[in-house]
Amino acid sequence: MLGHAVLASAAVAGLTALPAASQVGYTILRVAGALYLVYLGAQSLADFVRLRRSAAADTPASRSAGVRRRRRGRR
């Protein structure tokens, strides 16, 4: 759905005629799209690293204490 919305917005903005009319404009559009994909990838990678660090902060001692509490019926 998002892809269709982007294409519809591009058509309204006149960007669909840009590749046919101008090679430079098409190159700029391609580079902007590539930079956006790199940005999304970097953001995803940063979120993954942040998640791994927070999981590593969960020490084995605190995990074993949680297991002991659950065995006793406490949460």
Number of strands: 0
Distance N to C terminus = 42 Å
Low-confidence stretches: none
| Shape assignment | elongated
Query: Beta fraction of the residues?
Result: under 5%
Radius of gyration: 24 Å
Major sheet details: none
Mean pLDDT: 79
Describe this structure in words.
By secondary structure, this protein is mainly alpha-helical. Helix content is 85%, strand content 0%. The protein has 4 helices and no strands. The chain has helices spanning 2-13, 18-21, 23-57, 60-72. The chain starts with a helix and ends with a helix. The model has no long low-confidence stretch (mean pLDDT 79).
Question: Characteristics of this structure?
Answer:
mainly alpha, 75 residues, single chain
